Structure formats: C-alpha cells, structure tokens
Amino acid sequence: MSKNRSDLKTYINYIDKNIKTPNQNPTLGIILCRKDNEFVFEYVPNDNVIDREYELI
C-alpha cells in the first residue's frame, strides 16, 4: 500500500498548496481496503503516516 500512500500524499500536498484556503484545516487522507479477510485502514495526515489494521469479525 505504500504506492497508494505516496499517491495520496501527492494529492494532499497539491490540495493544501493550490486549492484550500488559509482558513481551512489541513487536508488528510484515508485509505480503506481489504487484504486477506481483514480491512486495512490507513490514515494519512499532512505530516505523519499511521497504519492501522482491523480484522472483520
């Protein structure tokens, strides 16, 4: 998923620099996908990347 994360990071940076206004909060990204009967959730904020995995019960 690192390719998805880097693509999303590119979009986040573009939006923050070219679209969002100064009074808006920083852009963040969320990636949700399924891998081996688990849902994988990635929260991609502007500066830090945090990976979380959840198992569907």
UniProtKB/TrEMBL annotation:
Protein name in UniProt: DUF1016 family protein
Organism: Candidatus Aphodocola excrementigallinarum
Annotated ranges, domain YhcG PDDEXK nuclease: 7-45
Origin superkingdom: Bacteria
InterPro entries: YhcG_C
